[in-house]
């Protein structure tokens, strides 16, 4: 998903869930920051690099794809953007253990990991809440792809069609992928940018939905293709339906987080609260445009009667940079960093205990003491010792 949904739509969902204008802005800011909190960003603040929640294109180009590099990539992308649907899933055909472990990282909504992500956020601040909403929304947009480089899992082929509503069905139009990152997607001609093809299983070109370009991030689009992991059986992706469910589930989850996060269960959607605004929301979701920010912003401001400040990545820089060491955890970015470390630690542990080392090793702190990356010591100390990494 893009900033239109992660920032402005999240503000709208938070307001419908009962948060104040200021709380909505903090939640929305934290949601969007997940897409920007890279090691480059953290380095500029002299902050723990292990709290990175994304990787910039230039960072990925320089990233090693040996076992250590792949584990770092998987920890980031599976924890925050491609939350695995079922870590115990088995392919419907015989395969190697290595392939099975990658297959189990395929993203999808309403997983046990999503439930635990929301409940974990209930123990944190608004930064944790916003981060959880980013992860929840991405489980809908990014489903069918995995947060680890894999040609077999994430590749697409020439069988890729955009679907346009027509009568009682859909009109198909074969779409075209190109590789010019500086050229905007052409909606009129169904020409979209995607990553370059690489037959290297572990190439960063085969990370996430890169081979499908930005299509998963557009709320208006419907398309069909043949995923390699599905034995090339046709798969239809209906983004307007998925984005509607994502928004309604966010409202439900946010209400749980305001009251009792432990009550959050998967498969629940607060359509009742959203229903009075359904026409407006569906119009925004289905409008063919590269960026729906202005529409979501107008809707949010109409809801609250307040102006929604544009996202500014430098907004909390000075607060964190000039805070004394003992006070950094109390700043906005400090609390975001703690939320990121907790989420990444939890997901890494679940992947490891499923029998996979794709995200690295994980030790139970209570049983073995601290054996993890140094950055996580502050999380252990902050939480009073109940952490895994």
Describe the structure.
This protein is α+β, with helices and mostly antiparallel strands. The chain has two domains: 3-144 and 240-383, no CATH class; 152-238, no CATH class. The chain is 44% helix and 7% strand. The chain is built from 17 helices and six strands. The strands form two sheets. Strands 2-1-5-6 form a four-stranded antiparallel sheet. The protein has a two-stranded parallel ribbon with strand order 3-4. β1 and β2 form a beta hairpin. α1 runs antiparallel to α2, α1 packs across α10 and α5 (67-80) crosses α15. The longest helix has 22 residues, at 332-353. The radius of gyration is 20 Å and the shape is globular. The model is unreliable at 385-389 (pLDDT under 50).
How are the secondary structure elements laid out?
Blueprint: H1 3-16, H2 21-33, H3 39-44, H4 57-61, H5 67-80, H6 97-103, H7 112-121, H8 126-141, H9 151-154, E1 160-166, E2 169-174, E3 176-178, E4 191-193, E5 222-225, E6 235-238, H10 239-259, H11 271-274, H12 278-286, H13 293-304, H14 317-321, H15 332-353, H16 365-368, H17 377-383
Parallel strand pairs: 3-4
Antiparallel strand pairs: 1-2, 1-5, 5-6
């Amino acid at each position: 998903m893009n900033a239109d949904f992660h920032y402005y739509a999240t503000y709208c969902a938070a307001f419908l869930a009962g948060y104040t204008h200021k709380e909505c802005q903090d939640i929305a800011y934290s949601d969007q920051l997940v897409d920007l909190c890279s090691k480059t960003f953290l380095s500029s603040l002299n902050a723990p690099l292990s709290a990175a929640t994304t990787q910039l294109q230039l960072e990925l180009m320089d990233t090693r794809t040996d076992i250590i590099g792949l584990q770092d990539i998987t920890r980031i992308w599976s924890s925050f953007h491609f939350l695995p649907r079922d870590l115990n899933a088995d392919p419907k055909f015989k395969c190697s253990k290595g392939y099975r472990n990658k297959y189990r990282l395929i993203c999808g909504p309403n997983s046990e990991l999503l439930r635990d992500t929301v409940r974990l956020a209930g123990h944190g601040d608004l930064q944790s809440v916003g981060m959880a909403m980013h992860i929840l929304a991405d489980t809908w947009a990014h489903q069918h792809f995995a947060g680890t480089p894999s040609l077999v899992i994430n590749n697409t082929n020439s069988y890729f069609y955009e679907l346009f509503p027509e009568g009682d069905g859909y009109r198909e139009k074969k779409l075209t992928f190109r590789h010019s990152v500086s050229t905007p997607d052409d909606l009129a001609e169904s020409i979209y940018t995607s990553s370059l093809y690489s037959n290297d299983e572990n190439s960063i070109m085969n990370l996430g939905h890169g081979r499908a370009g930005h299509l998963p991030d557009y709320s208006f689009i419907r398309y069909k293709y043949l995923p390699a992991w599905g034995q090339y059986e046709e798969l239809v992706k209906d983004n307007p339906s998925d984005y509607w469910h994502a928004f309604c589930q966010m409202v439900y989850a946010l209400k749980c987080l305001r009251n009792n996060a432990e009550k959050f269960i998967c498969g629940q959607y607060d359509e009742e609260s959203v229903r009075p605004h359904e026409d407006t929301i569906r119009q925004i979701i289905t409008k063919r445009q590269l960026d729906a920010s202005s529409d979501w912003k107008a809707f949010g401001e109409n809801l609250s009667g307040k102006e929604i400040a544009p996202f500014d990545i430098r907004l909390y820089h000075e607060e964190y940079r000039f805070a004394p060491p003992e006070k950094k955890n109390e700043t906005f970015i400090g609390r975001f960093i703690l939320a990121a470390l907790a989420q990444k630690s939890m997901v890494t542990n679940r992947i490891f205990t499923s029998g996979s080392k794709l995200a690295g090793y994980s030790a139970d702190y209570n049983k073995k003491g601290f054996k993890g990356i140094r950055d996580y010591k502050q999380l252990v100390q902050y939480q009073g010792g109940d952490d895994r990494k």
